[in-house]
């Protein structure tokens, strides 16, 4: 899955089908992609599974100041999706109380939890010294702690971080949602990593 702009390139260069491409006339199909990107992982995941999506591609220009990236197209995705699902995707939820479209620590909860935001900035902070991560396209300093992903795995990131591809995780073998499974696994790792207290014999 990607925004429709890259459909032909993906089909021609990678020989993979996409949900939408440059010749998609069905507005609902385009709105479905927009809804997925505008939704949280928990909402987007079953939608992608329903459409047999294996990978998700986003373009990010924040590192090298490429302004034609998906975050700069995101408002159109939101608007198209809200035209079909006005009760589920609301443009106003992505703007601050001052009417600003923010990606920094003032970003709204809906914005910072959206699939687009998470896939764009996942691990992006690692490119900068602590506390100095910045989006050079939108000229905003990013939150100190970057987003995490529970339902997707990073499959590929290009040298300049423009092309980012994520694999959709398979259903959990125990039937758990991925967020619960990850929390459980993280707890096991922390427990395993604890250093046992030394016991001293009483004199």
Task: Furnish the topology, listing elements before pairings.
Blueprint: H1 7-14, H2 27-38, H3 41-50, E1 55-59, H4 74-84, H5 109-112, H6 115-121, E2 134-135, E3 140-141, E4 152-157, E5 163-168, H7 178-193
Antiparallel strand pairs: 1-5, 2-3, 4-5
- Any idea what the shape is? globular
- Helical content class: 25-40%
Instruction: Indicate the radius of gyration in whole angstroms.
Output: 19 Å
Which oligomerization state do the chains in this entry correspond to?
A: single chain
The counted number of beta strands is 5
Order of helices and strands: HHHEHHHEEEEH
Low-confidence regions: 193-203
Distance linking N and C termini: 68 Å
Number of helices: 7
Structural class of the secondary structure composition? Answer: alpha+beta
How is the biggest beta sheet arranged? 3 strands, antiparallel
Q: Which sequence of strands runs across the widest sheet?
A: 1-5-4
Averaging pLDDT over every residue, what do you get? 88
Strand content: 5-15%
Explain this structure.
The chain is of the alpha+beta class and 203 residues long. It is 33% helix and 10% strand. The chain is built from seven helices and five strands. The chain has helices spanning 7-14, 27-38, 41-50, 74-84, 109-112, 115-121, 178-193; strands at 55-59, 134-135, 140-141, 152-157, 163-168. It has a three-stranded antiparallel β-sheet with strand order 1-5-4. A hairpin with a 4-residue loop joins strand 2 and strand 3. Helix 2 packs antiparallel against helix 3 and helix 2 packs across helix 4. It is globular, with a radius of gyration of 19 Å. It starts with 6 loop residues before the first helix and ends in a 10-residue tail after the last helix. 30% of the residues are buried.
């Amino acid at each position: 899955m990607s925004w429709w702009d890259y459909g032909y390139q993906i089909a021609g260069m990678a020989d993979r089908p996409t949900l939408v491409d440059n010749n998609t006339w069905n507005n609902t199909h385009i709105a479905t992609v927009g809804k997925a990107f505008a939704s949280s992982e928990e909402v987007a995941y079953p939608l992608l599974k329903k459409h047999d999506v294996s990978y998700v591609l986003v373009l990010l220009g924040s590192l090298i100041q490429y302004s034609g990236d998906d975050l700069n197209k995101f408002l159109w995705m939101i608007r198209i999706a809200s035209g079909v699902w006005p009760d589920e995707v609301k443009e106003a939820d992505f703007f601050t109380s001052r009417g600003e479209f923010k990606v920094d620590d003032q970003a709204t909860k809906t914005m910072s939890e959206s699939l687009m935001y998470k896939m764009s900035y996942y691990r992006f902070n690692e490119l900068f010294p602590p506390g100095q991560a910045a989006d050079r396209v939108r000229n905003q300093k990013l939150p100190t702690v970057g987003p995490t992903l529970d339902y997707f795995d990073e499959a590929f990131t290009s040298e300049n971080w423009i092309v980012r591809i994520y694999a959709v995780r398979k259903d959990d073998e125990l039937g758990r949602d991925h967020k619960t499974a990850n929390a459980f696994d993280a707890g096991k790792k922390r427990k395993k990593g604890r250093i046992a207290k030394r016991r001293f014999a009483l004199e």
